[in-house]
Amino acid sequence: MSVPAWLSAPFIEKALRRSENDDSICIVDCSIKPATNKGDNYTSDMHRVTVEYRHNQGAKAVTEKISIIVKVAPTAEGIHKDLIAEAGLFGIEIKMMTTTLKEMQLILKDKKLSGRCLYTQEKDPPLLIIEDLAPLGFRMADRQAGLDLHHCILALRGLAKFHASSVAVYEKTPKYKETYVKGIFNTGNPPDMIRFFTSGMKSLAKAVKSWPELDDTYADKLDKLADVAYERASESRTPDESEFNVINHGDFWVNNMLFKYNDDGKVIDHIFLGFRSNAASRESCYVNNAMNSIVVDRIRLSRHSDYNVDFQLCVYGSPAVDLAYFFNTSPSEEVLSKHTDNLIEEYVKVLSETMKKIGCKRPPPSIADIKKSLVKRDVYGFVAACTILPIVMIDKSQAQNIEEIMGQDDGEFNNKSYENPIYKKTMLRRLPQWKAAGLLEA
């Protein structure tokens, strides 16, 4: 991924001056490099910018160093650019980060949901400039292995607080129910987005046909189901006002969250992908964990900090939307098979406590309510496992970009992640369960 010509020191200087309301800011040094690996992010181009700048502080001129992420809508002609533009994803994310998320954070206070958005631009090209969370010692977990129980507990505690604060916000501003209406499964999404899921289901059917462990009925059922699966997932996502509803993250999977670890390598904190607090950026910092130990004056940089940043698919509806997506893309198979009930209980407990603490008027759901909502949205998680999970599990050395998957040159869908033996092992356990539940019927 090349750095666009306009992404330069003068542009960053202008953005920082506006963000900090400080016209004395002057860039001393600026380096730019890709912020994600191939296959990590399908909705934007990401650049990490390390900046050294001078500015006036009282009568003194002081020098600061910061690391920021520049997230840009795809600019190269092709499927990637067209899909993101047609879906309007950047407009949704800008709205979320500049208004709704800020309000949620103010209400929540004791839990940092994300971080600070420094600068936005709605066109030519659409972009966000956001503070880098790596300096706080957060990093991504191993998406291939799946999250263990401790990681999952922290993730669902964070999700519960996110959902609770969203309830408080939309109780004050009901219009947000109409703002976040698209999500990842919506029949109004661009044809290429729908084709990604339909073709993914057909690719799974083709792969299953070569698995001797399963009889031919599995492949036949999946092939027939492919043409209606996206529509069914979309229908299951539609809000039901008789149920408990929240603003869902909409893309709550392992690549959209970061974790922090203590000196012994034990996971101690979770955050939605976002950015560091302004206060932290102005301190001398020490980072030490089992994987990484570095000291940098006034800026902490992690060697394990490549990541995605997404609030583009936020959608109002049952919290089962986020829960079903998470359960089917992120935990290890051991956690999913042994601890799903424990995780639901932890989620409901933290959701209830948080809603009470921040003064929500609506009563929280019970554990039975959430389980009922999850059963109602079985198809949502099922389609996610059939289309998103293979990408989660693919080794980074074999990752493809969206043009390679969608077949920009010849129009033929070619997602190599269905050849992954780790994914095959997972699906050999899950497919019989889904078949017994009737989810494979077209």
UniProtKB/TrEMBL annotation:
Residues 128-357 form the CHK kinase-like domain. It comes from the Eukaryota. Pfam families: EcKL. Coiled coil: none annotated. InterPro entries: CHK_kinase-like, EcKL, Kinase-like_dom_sf. This is CHK kinase-like domain-containing protein. The lineage of its organism: Eukaryota, Metazoa, Ecdysozoa, Arthropoda, Hexapoda.
